[in-house]
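Anyone? Bumping this.
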Amino acid sequence: MDYQQLLSDAMGAARHAAGTGRVADYIPALAAADPDAFGMALATAEGEVFGVGAWEQPFSIQSISKLFTLTHVLAQGGDDIWKGVGREPSGNTFNSLVQLETERGIPRNPFINAGAIVVTDRLQSLTGDAAGAVRAFLRAESENPLIDTDRAVAASEAEHGHRNAALAHFIASHGNLENSVEVVLEQYYAHCAIEASCRDLALAGRFLARYGLRANGSRLLSRSEAKRVNAVLLTCGTYDAAGEFAYRVGLPGKSGVGGGILAIVPGRAAVCAWSPGLDKAGNSVSAVAALDAFSTASGLSVF
Amino acid sequence: MDYQQLLSDAMGAARHAAGTGRVADYIPALAAADPDAFGMALATAEGEVFGVGAWEQPFSIQSISKLFTLTHVLAQGGDDIWKGVGREPSGNTFNSLVQLETERGIPRNPFINAGAIVVTDRLQSLTGDAAGAVRAFLRAESENPLIDTDRAVAASEAEHGHRNAALAHFIASHGNLENSVEVVLEQYYAHCAIEASCRDLALAGRFLARYGLRANGSRLLSRSEAKRVNAVLLTCGTYDAAGEFAYRVGLPGKSGVGGGILAIVPGRAAVCAWSPGLDKAGNSVSAVAALDAFSTASGLSVF
Amino acid sequence: MDYQQLLSDAMGAARHAAGTGRVADYIPALAAADPDAFGMALATAEGEVFGVGAWEQPFSIQSISKLFTLTHVLAQGGDDIWKGVGREPSGNTFNSLVQLETERGIPRNPFINAGAIVVTDRLQSLTGDAAGAVRAFLRAESENPLIDTDRAVAASEAEHGHRNAALAHFIASHGNLENSVEVVLEQYYAHCAIEASCRDLALAGRFLARYGLRANGSRLLSRSEAKRVNAVLLTCGTYDAAGEFAYRVGLPGKSGVGGGILAIVPGRAAVCAWSPGLDKAGNSVSAVAALDAFSTASGLSVF
Amino acid sequence: MDYQQLLSDAMGAARHAAGTGRVADYIPALAAADPDAFGMALATAEGEVFGVGAWEQPFSIQSISKLFTLTHVLAQGGDDIWKGVGREPSGNTFNSLVQLETERGIPRNPFINAGAIVVTDRLQSLTGDAAGAVRAFLRAESENPLIDTDRAVAASEAEHGHRNAALAHFIASHGNLENSVEVVLEQYYAHCAIEASCRDLALAGRFLARYGLRANGSRLLSRSEAKRVNAVLLTCGTYDAAGEFAYRVGLPGKSGVGGGILAIVPGRAAVCAWSPGLDKAGNSVSAVAALDAFSTASGLSVF
């Protein structure tokens, strides 16, 4: 399969969506991004890497980090995490408190903010440094030691983070946090504010295309676990537009408000597209368009 | 009207409800209360005071303080408070986040926790010491200089206060707090943890029976404002059992999870009943029974 | 008290609100009304009647009929009705299905549509002709034998009544209807489509100002029951603006989308104002303004 | 791949789940089923058929019919259906009214009851006989002319169908039905009450494994449409347990309260398992267990 050509064509499709998205503006650091910047990279299961556009430019990975916190909790702690967080689509906006209230502090899935706070809490208990664990993994898989948290972004998120603080306190009121709200939020902001490129993320997500095997051949997740993480990505990975993403793209994927989306082609490749302009659901307009074009042209949708 | 006899009869009715309520147990300090302790006091518009049972025993006034924070904001700041808080019954449990989410951070009324947090914030802006203002007013009206915040209770509430912290952060995320979450919650806990007796509270509530006139003859609220506060008390003062309280008792009233209820007979008297055993809605079983018996026997319901 | 003068002044106040309301337009028959038509009548407990404006012009009483269905069920069947309907303010729009779903088919109170459907069902069981019972009562109290259902309006409501049909079927699915959905809705539309004037309604509501005594001196409700109906009116009678109505007017009242509001001054009088222009909550803008002016000027608020 | 062995092993796994499910009992006809009856069939893309247990025994297909109504609307009418129904997971129980109320009569997806009512309405508009179209398709694909609606079941569903009637009226109140509520519900019950066997359904679902090609080689859906239907099945096909089904089984599937589940292995096969005992979400306990075992042993999950 000519991946380089597929990426080029996908970038062409993304160009048609340019100008329609809106950059996340709840913190100044994200608001400054160029809405129409675009990059896309693909890493095959065998280790080849392809890229187009600004595929090596670092951006704020934001919620894409939640994929890595979840897999690390699963890798270290087994299935206990599912007692504190569900794995059903939320059917509500990604930071909804309503669901928490009606479901007694158990977030619907690990990829909405509330669920990611619980996952961060558990990873903190397991490692003592949740954000550090994510950074170390990203550096190792991408062989890029420069990957780091943007401290200014993390601080800015914390400053504007009343809503996440509300979620965390609410979860704590139901006894579903092991660490203090302050510690959990600090770690949460630290892993969300990591900067990485499409190239870095495609390489870091490759283990899910390899059924759990890391770049060095060691096993992070069992085959069954890796498949199940892909299932949760498909049903819950793109906020409350997961149905639409499955319909259009047909691949497991995780998006972030920094404009990145990391998608998995099981058995084949991990592919990451990035463009800061977002749609109403918080997903990158151009990245979705590029992945849509890619899966249509390649026939690599899982369906 | 023989108020002393009415109170004695009301206490008799309350005795029949003994044993059915459950003491608030979310903090140790409240959980230690005797569920069947009972006291009741009435202060007439003219200044007479009557009492039965443990009517001079101090207890934690809790949400009854919200009546005084509201009236002081109205007394000092006018009607601006109604931009940040509504005056409709909530139709939900008293600490619900759902309503806040669907109504963009404007609490339904000043007596649910969320609304009281907003009112405390505004009183803090107006006075620099919200809890101090409430204490000073209670002391002055009751001529009891010993009224004070129980610091142990306030600290314990803060320690177990994740739910209120969630509410405050959520309100702040909608830009509806002027002070920091930390300051507002500190003041909130400080006025909720005030200890006062039925006697003290009946005297302190007397201005609402006197259409706004304080004990010393000065005016706290205009006649119209006083009537309107009574209206909000009737429709919103007893959590999500306001309809039931209006149906059974027929008087404006404010309850607290310490077991106290302060009710107003417009033009006539303020009456406070107290017993720590609570019903599911958070209102004192015996205090409601006593006020029910009182209003039925006296015919003093507003309807 | 110079009631005639008070009514004249109230009409003056209402004139200032003219032009701001919007006529109910979900059925053609109501949409044709003049938004600024206005009438107001007051019937004292002793039997005097006063009126201003179009106080003798019949209009569609709509939800005001719900006050009469409730009192007739209470008069005939005692308190059993409260097993099938609550008496708490709803905190939601008047035709909400959400509440029914979360509270297992028990409507919050007898004055929201869902609750009124349950009350109509019970009155149908008790009388075999729910709407006929309401008509007979209105005719007797007002000594106006011409009061009748407007069949065209009832038919039009039925035709556009998918939402009420949804409510009724939903209640039936919870086993909370004794009669068939078809029969209940037919009766419901028949009593809502009764035409009566301010004069008629003030006379018909007089028994609530007389603590349960009808015009002929017979007792419809016990003193206690009458007071309790007033309490439910105050907390639930004006859709989800009950708090606002209590705050501004301070009287128990029931509104209808035909533009009428019937309010009770316990011990004194029943007063009905009418003007078809509605606010967002479905209450007549000018009728609320007139009642506000009346209660302020007279000092007759219950608070 | 030895499909016969895989089915035998899956039946063995299902046997372990026996005794834990509860038969749907909202109508007598379904309540009489043996909770532990079991059958399973697989039809390959090439046309081979395998079966174990009671794989040729007809059962009530119930909501599985919704897969066929949707595909026929798409086959005939194109994408217009997506204006009247969404394609996001619902995050609520399958017959929820709440979502309809907050989203103005547009059901979340075509597989919850509300959405299926809209789809039935559109298919009725397109064909004049929605249920007949489904029956004809099932008969043709399975070469079983005996497939038919069980009229007693359909009548019983209609009799106990207040909740679906509420949904339909509510949707109609938002202008989202083209036909009358009565006609739509009649068709809805008629296609839900079709009886077919695992064998029949596996053959009828085979076109989704063949990317849109029917048994006779004609095209029902384009390749892209077929993939997209599979995506909607995966995210929405098993009520509010779609996340769990994706996690455990990893295949697009549609369940019914008759106990059947039809799952698709894209490019390979359609497989149907049946056992009447249901879990809380309304999915067959043993059928899920069998499909879980099948996808795990075969490695045929899409992830």
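Late reply, but here is one note on the structure posted above: The two ends of chain D are 18 Å apart (CA to CA).
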